[in-house]
Amino acid sequence: MHQFIKSAAILMAVVLAGCGGGSGDLPAKPKFSAQVSFGDSLSDVGTYNVGFVNAAGGGQFSINGSNANGKAANGNNITNWTEVLALNLGLPAPCAAVTGLIDTSGSDALTVPVSAYQTGCYGYAQGGALVTNPYGIHNTHYGTYAATSGLGGAELTYPVVTQINNYLADHADSFSGNELVSVVVGGNEVKLQLTLLVGGATAAGTAAANAAVATQIQADIVGGTCIPTDAQATNCQPAAIAELGGLAALQTIGNTAAATYLSPIGPAVTAAVTAMATAAGELVNDVNTLLLAKGAKHVVVASIPDFADIPAVAANPSFVPYQPLIDGLVIAFNSTLQAGLAALPDSANVIYLDTYTSIKDEINHPEKYGLINSTAQACDPDLTPQNRALFCNANTLKTGLTADSHYLFSDDTHPTPYGHMLFAQFVLQEMTKKGWH
Q1: Most buried among 85, 197, 345, 405, by the most CB within 10 A?
Q2: Which of 60-64, 163-167, 237-241, 312-316 has the lowest mean pLDDT?
């Protein structure tokens, strides 16, 4: 994405023209029979655009509704980067291969069954998906949307390995070699590991504070300064806490234990980094055995973006101290992915998208890309259900903004329609460098 872009209108003109006006580095004509996308919410074109999501005016992970990107031939708003790419390549507008939500109980009860494969639809990417683990972000495995972990929900989250196998089952176990295949996944791996780390650190801090109180109570009982009146010695707790220095001292004890738990060289963080590298290795294997070995000749695989600098992290004071840790998780995934793809026998048929560098440049140099804001979200957290782009639309934006405002982020993680267009431009440029036009 190293091209000066003044506005969405100019960018769309460049994308559509494909030649002239300084845009000769873009594909001049289509050569692909289909665009097949695997991955997570960044490529999801409507898996959950049913039931209460649709009723809320949502459906895709951006700003839903009309925008300056225009409409596809099927009448759908062009919101996702894959839709921009399809328009440029002369392909039909992408559509979700399956749709639906998982039934849950209680107030979140749903009655939207999972659809059968939609013929002619090659959008297999699903919001919340991981590489191999079927229990992605907002899956019922973690409870309802109200779960304190923030991981619960009613979304399908088929992992990439299942998405690809589903495609193969739907298409005679092969690719023709004329498809443009994209794989964009990994951000949810970071979110899962970060959630587990934060949960573990919180538990470690609580355990350390409780242990300190218990130890002091035992010392008081032995010393005769407190005689317990019940099995839990609850009557001894106030004095024990006071002797330790009060609640502030307990907080310090807990914070110290949490920090130790999150040490970069500690077992918990080491395990998380290993998990990220493992996921990347599994993705490399999927690309090799389920895409290339099955006939795919044009495969685009994206790295994880600059996750430590997105609003979900950079704008959250509690996460800012852990930006280096988060960056370490991202780098573990990206470095393993890049090296693994480069070592494949058919690596010539793969483009590795350095999304990490491109997004970091957009965040740090917004003026280069016509962005008016690259650090805050456009969707109003108080108006947008769950503060998620899946539900964001023109009615839930911050005052004074529209779907066409040149913000980079819709919610605290996902791109706006303009941000998706920037990503599509980046993909097209990398395809041109590869000679895929």
Answers
A1: 85
A2: 312-316
For residues 134 and 236, membership in a common domain is answered with no
Closest to 47 measured CA to CA, from 183, 155, 140, 152 = 155
Examine the domain organization and report whether 15 and 127 are in the same domain.
yes
- Whether residue 299 contacts residue 351, with contact meaning beta carbons closer than 8 Å, is answered with yes
Residues 151 and 56 in one domain: yes
Instruction: Look at residues 231, 262, 293 and tell me which one is the last residue of a structural domain.
Output: 262
- 270 within a domain of the structure (yes/no): no
Nearest CA among 86, 41, 298, 291 for reference residue 168: 291
DSSP characters over 192-208: HHHHHHHHHHHHHHHHH
Q: How many CB atoms are closer than 10 A to CB 422?
A: 27
Backbone φ and ψ for 39, nearest 5 degrees, come out as 140, -145
CA distance readout (Å), 19 to 24, 26, 90: 4, 7, 15
pLDDT digits (tens, 9 = 90+) for 86-143: 999 999 999 999 999 986 555 444 567 788 889 999 999 999 999 999 999 999 899 8
Dihedral sign from CA coordinates of 118, 121, 122, 124 = negative
pTM of the model: 0.90
